[in-house]
Amino acid sequence: MPPIYPPALAPGDTIAFVAPAGKLDKERMELARKRLEEMGFHVSVPENLYRTRGYLAGTDKARADELMKAFKNPEIKAIFPGTGYYGATRILDRLDYELIRKNPKVLIGFSDITAIHLAVNSKTGLVTFHSPNPMYGLGSKNGLSDFSAEYFWRSFLQEKQFDVDNGKPAGEYAFSFPESIAKLKIIAPGKGRGRLVGGNLSLVCALMGSEYEMDTDGKVLFLEDVGERPYRLDRYLSQLRLGGKLKNLKGVLLGRFSDCDPKEGEESLSRDEVFQDYFGKLGIPVIADFPAGHYRYNATLPIGGLVEIDADQGKVSIIEPLVDTKPPITPGAKAEKSTGK
Fold first, then answer.
1. Is 224 a catalytic residue?
2. Angle CA(100)–CA(197)–CA(24) in degrees, nearest 5?
3. Is 130 a known active-site residue?
4. Is 267 a catalytic residue?
5. Quick one: the chain helix, strand, coil %, rounded to 5?
6. Which residue, of 84, 227, 247, 265, has the fewest CB within 10 Å?
7. Model confidence pLDDT, tens digit, residues 146-173
8. Which of 213, 224, 228, 308 is catalytic?
């Protein structure tokens, strides 16, 4: 579907906390709330946000209804799921995608929230944000790392969208970081651009065969995961290959695969050998070990946004504004509207 860009977020706007997947840690959520309020945001916290049902944050109906209420409420400008963990796939068929399409908002999260990102993007075209969340980032003991905070707010915060010197959109940028944060590996050379799809590998595979599975034709594929040994990564990637999801890609961006090495003494392929087997001969640029995923240095990436992978230069860039916004009005200057398209 054609892309839809959510309105930019600014201090004074209301952010809704929701629990569409796993149950939430109240202490972390309250710390995230405090930090957001100190930045000038209002935070909407549903009365029963901390409900539980086993490993879930309540029943499927309660979790889906809560998310849809946040999309429907015109006062809410952004939706911050507290965490991923498990349960998002159970509510996909309970969401009203036409209502979401008519009420675009900033939607963040990672891990299990991949399922919601992919379903919303495929059904509505809304650009969403694979990013840190309240429990693992905003509400962590030390908060977002400087690196994570830079690209989190740069993605959708109003004041980050314009060059104050000339009032023009500043939506295009390349990710920059020292090797102490990440040292990129080039699996295959080249340069390509396309709209980003993907997220957590196991969740991407969980949607295969459903109406919510991702369309990768002409896209840049992003994948990350945690706690999956090489033979499991191999199985997931084999599923994607057999399902035709590795054909006609413009590039591949592999994020952090934390705790995904073989056990000590285990006879196994390495993680990098598995990646080379599946991505090394596709004839497209492939970059690995990008800092995004289950990692303190978690870069925010736009699901549905236009990106460029330059493996020759080891460079990953956002090449369009990701939100619909208006530039600040300065004395003697006429404001120009950017639709992000």
1. yes
2. 60
3. no
4. no
5. 30, 25, 45
6. 265
7. 999 999 999 999 989 876 555 556 678 9
8. 224
